[in-house]
Model the fold of this input.
Amino acid sequence: MPDKPKVAFYWCASCGGCEESIVDLAEDILEVAQAVDIVFWPVALDFKRKDVEAMPDGSILATMVNGSIRTSEQEEMAYLLRRKSQILIAYGSCAHMGGVPSLANQFSREQILRYVYEEAPTVVNEQKVRPQPRHQYDGTALTLPEFRGLARSLDQVVEVDYYLPGCPPTPKLLKQAVLTLLSGELPPKGTVLAPDVALCDQCPRKETKPTDLQINEFKRPHWTQIDPEKCFLAQGVVCMGPATRAGCEAQCIKGNMPCTGCFGPTSRVRDQGAKILSALASPISAREPEEIEKILGGIPDPVGTFYRYSLAKSLLRAKVTR
Amino acid sequence: MEDKPITDQLVTSADWEPLIVAFFCNWCTYTAADLAGVSRMGYDHNVRVIRVMCSGRVDPQFVLDAFAHGADGVLIGGCHPGDCHYVEGNYKTLRRYHLLKRMLRDLGIEEGRLRLEWIAASEGEKVAKTINEMVEQVRALGPLRLTRRFKEWDAELASLEAEARSEEVATHA
Done:
């Protein structure tokens, strides 16, 4: 019997939710496991980096990497897995666009390290000790990965073939992706493996979105009694739906929470944050600068709201003066 | 949107000159710029004018893209409120401008680098005055040079690649 195609999973700067979503395949995982050999998956299987290093280049059919790239070790793993894999897939928002970890691109490396190791209210560190990449202890050299100046998407470090969007991707999309890979009928390189339409197109509340939308006030979801049937924008609640790709089956909307944008933009949009900015600001009802400013006060953190999952991949990539 | 910087020679030379990308609406500001031209009004040469049908056509992505490709400032010119050829376009621009300005501030781009000005077709002088003012303002702020900053940010990636290569050479030696 010929060898089954090999697949690998790896995680970088991520929360573990993407790994969880693989397990969420539930009994379908058996089908996947039957069709492929999983040769590397640190969260679940006991293979080591040296096992991957020992494989011939290009011997893994597909590797799915989740998490953004923040440390030199994650970069090394990205290079290694790229070399060993025929197809490299950025799995989940962080690998796709930088994700939530890339919101830290609003701060310098020094600001982050100082806060985390010295200033956070839960930290006691009188000597102000910081982790060092190299240290001598009892005659032994100890090393730690370098913490880089920026969080990056996977494709800002190595070439990526496909993207599975979402925080995390749905098991349904994962299953479809695996079946597509096995079928051998591959989509064009660079494809995001989800429908290329805005979430509004598939939103169960689509019918209630007014054609002449007017926004008089932006309301924070946690301060608002949200009507479970009506378009969020018509209620003045910031919803990323117009600037976000469909494919999640509107799970948040069905839970009566607005879209926060984890699937990223459609293929026609380069910068998700700029696009939602446009969609939200244009229909404001006011015409005078003071009134406009007053209404915009309802969005206290535009960067954190509009680029929640995509700051690393935005046109400016980071706060330019950090 | 290509990744080629529009201003390589400008951003790398020591005698830096501010570079302003200007989006002018076809019906008012661009016509005014034409008027300034035929009337032989001089203004600073630091501006690259892009004609759009309406200031409302200026997607915030255009502004970010101009900065990302090396612009030091972006100027948007449209018809006066109430005069928009498409009735509402300039109001939409105004609203986006307010939000974009706030977002740019949070991303470290100074307020003076983005300006919105209403300039009617007859106001050739205002085009010259606005451009000259903005060039001075941006000159005072100094270079933004994002194309160069992006390269500096990514220098840390190159270091690992070089290290990996040298290790490979060492192990194969």
User: Anything to note?
Assistant: Strands of chain A lie at 6-11, 37-40, 60-66, 69-71, 85-91, 134-137, 140-143, 147-152, 162-164. The two ends of chain A are 57 Å apart (CA to CA). The first helix of chain A runs from residue 17 to 23. The mean pLDDT of chain A is 95.
